[in-house]
Amino acid sequence: MSRVLSVWWDGRIAGALRVSQQGEMRFAYEAAWLADAARPPISCSLPKRPEPFRQRECRPFFAGLLPEETQREAAADALGLSKGNDFKLLEALGGEVAGALTLWPEGETPPVDNPAVAVSPLDDAALGELLDSLPARPLLAGREGFRLSLAGAQSKLPVVLVDNNVALPAPGQPTTHIVKPPIARLAATTENEALVMRLAATLKLDVAPVDVRVVAGRPCLLVTRYDRRVDGAGRARRLHQEDFCQALGVLPEHKYSIEGGPAFKTSFDLLRRVATRPAIATLALLDAAIFNVLVGNADAHGKNFSLLYDDGDVRLAPLYDLLCTAAYPDLSAKLAMRIATKATLDDIRTTTWPAFAADIGMSAPFIRKRVKELAFAAPDAASTALHSLANAGLDPVAMARYVALLASRAERLAATT
Asked: For position 275, which CATH number holds?
């Protein structure tokens, strides 16, 4: 049984993740990685140092690479593992994760991405069967030849595109897209997320590109991975990223601010400390905070915001997982990250924005102005977003309902300025 996982980054070993007989994890950087000033730390919460990091220090980052909640439980069941065994789950799933890292048993070398190795597109029936299997086998857990992991509590499948058709990756090949089927217990989530993501893009927010694919008669979201860069020859390279929980050393199960997870104050402070251009990064996060209020997304927690590391540049990653949770009465209305002291979307008033400004260290008049700009632009932008999704196979009744809901929310938000 493996007791050491080598942590690879761009063809070199950055460090080793070890587990003791008692199940205690430790992470230590490789000496050569420490000696190379050009090689960065793998996380803001794990700065380069010769001493190993104990489990309480390194678990937030490494556990943060794994699926969450029911997805983690189902993956563990499919693998015959305990859901609390981070190390064994990483051993089984950690060959392709968010960011630039890959984890392999000590002594093994990651498969080299070989563009000459052809992968075949999946036909509609085969892709439909894979998506149907995800509730019992998230991320293809336990399927021979695949070691895939993504954080989050929603079913999803990392894939590549071949001639614009979905395919499973070859060994060592970075995935470039994510297929997200609809959430079974909630109505029309693909319509909801597609519209909200396109609305964000129409309002000029930096957001992961999304398209819609109809698979076996149901619409699914196809998300372009922002942590991959594809060169002119079509070869993908992994870019590093980490979510705010990982960067701040917060366990994924504590991702909500009420449980000790990132709040807006700590998130803005993080960007001011580590972003290459803090002013641009903090303005982008401000827009994200306002936008989530605008669309009624109460579930924007610390794992829904990330840092992207790109050739020495550190910035707020494009936004992702944007959903109008207010469309679902059964979902909690409590904000995952409070706006000043306001705990729900409906609590926000005119007095909220000056308090929020003081909390995050920004100008109150500027924030009010930006709230007003986004609120007044949103109805027309929603119509534009709707038009961009015409003929995508989405439910027109659900789309019209969401557009009307977003317009109503924009009117309410404008009244708070």
From this structure: 1.10.1070
- How many CB atoms within 10 Å of residue 20? 11
Residue 66 belongs to some domain of the structure: yes
pLDDT digits (tens, 9 = 90+) for 58-75: 999 999 999 999 999 999
Catalytic residue (one of 86, 243, 287, 299): 299
Contact 386, 399 (CB under 8 A): yes
CA 407 to chain centroid, in Å, comes to: 26
Cβ(236)–Cβ(228) under 8 Å?
yes
Known active-site residue 359 = no
**Contacts (Cβ under 8 Å, ≥6 apart) of 230:** 176, 236, 237
Same-domain pairing of 144 and 273: no
Bridge partners of 6, per DSSP, are 16, 104
Instruction: State pLDDT tens for residues 315-351.
Output: 999 999 999 999 999 999 999 999 999 999 999 999 9
Q: Cα-flanking dihedrals φ and ψ of residue 161, to 5°?
A: -110, 135
Q: Which domain holds residue 24?
A: 4-105
